[in-house]
C-alpha cells in the first residue's frame, strides 16, 4: 500500500492511500469470483451454443447433429439461392412490419387512457396488462378457436352483416395477418405496462405549467409527453423488434408455417430444418443469418433512434 501526500486548499497536509499491486490483484480475484456464476451460465447457455452454431454452419451434419463434411460457405450460398428461405425472410420482414408499429401504437394509446386520473381506472389497468399473465401456448389455442372458419367468433361476426367468411388461418393472404393480430394482443400487456410506468414518471408540474399557458391536450402530448417518454419508447421499440424476429410459439400452434409457407418465419424454418429434416448445417446458417438481421436492426435502432431520445 503506497501513500501519497498533498496539500489541501486550507494549507494542511493530507495523505491518500493508493492500493498496491497485490491489493489490486486481490480485488480483481474477488470480482471474478463474484462474476463466476454469471460467467458460467452465460458460457453454457449463450456463448457455447452461439459459437457451436457458427461452427456447424460451415459443415454438413449427420442426424445426430455432428459435423461430417466441411463445405465452407456452401450452406450460405444454398440459402441465398433457395426460394423457400427467401420466402421465409420476406414473411419475417412483413411480420415485423405488421406487429411492431401497430403493437406500440395500441399500447401507447391504452397507456395514455390508463394514465388519466379517473375513478376505477385501476380495473382497466389490470385488464389491459392481463395478457402478460397468459402463456403463448394458451393464448394461441384461444385464438385458434376464434379464427376457426365455422365456429370462430370472427366469422360469426361477419355473418351478422352478411359478409363472406374468411379462411383466417387457411388462406395465404390472411394467415400472416391473423398471426400478427394474435401476436399484437399477446405483446400489448408488457408494452402497456412499461409505457404506463414511463408516463407516471413524467413530472406533473410540466403539465400544470403548460395548462396555465393555455396549451391543449394534443400540444402537451406532442411537446411534453412524447419527448419525456422517448427513453421508454426507445426501449419498447428495441425489445419489440427483437421479439418479432424471434416469434415461434404462435406460428407452431396456429399455422405450422402454412398455408403455402406464408407464415414460415425464419425461426420456424430453423426449427423444421433442424428437428424435422435433420439438416443442422443449413439450420445453423439460417440462425446466423437471423442473428445478423437482429444485430443490424438493433444497431440501426441505436444509431438512428437514440438521436431523438431526450434523457432527463
Brief description of this entry?
68% of the residues lie in helices and 6% in strands. With 312 residues, it is mainly alpha-helical.
| Order of helix and strand elements from N to C terminus | EEHEEHHHHHHHHHHH
Between the first and last Cα atoms, what is the distance in angstroms?
41 Å
Strand order of the largest sheet: 1-2
Alpha-beta classification: mainly alpha
- Largest sheet report: 2 strands, antiparallel
Q: Give the beta-strand count.
A: 4
Spatial shape: flat
For the CA atoms, what is the radius of gyration?
27 Å
The DSSP helix count reads: 12
| Percent range of helical residues | 55-70%
The protein's oligomeric status is single chain
Percentage of β-strand residues: 5-15%
Note poorly predicted spans: none
What is the residue-averaged pLDDT? 89
Give an overview in words.
It is a multi-pass membrane protein. The protein is mostly helical and 312 residues long. It contains twelve helices and four strands, in the order ββαββααααααααααα. The strands form two sheets. It has a two-stranded antiparallel sheet. Strands 3-4 form a two-stranded antiparallel ribbon. Helix 3 packs antiparallel against helix 9. It is flat. The model has no long low-confidence stretch (mean pLDDT 89).
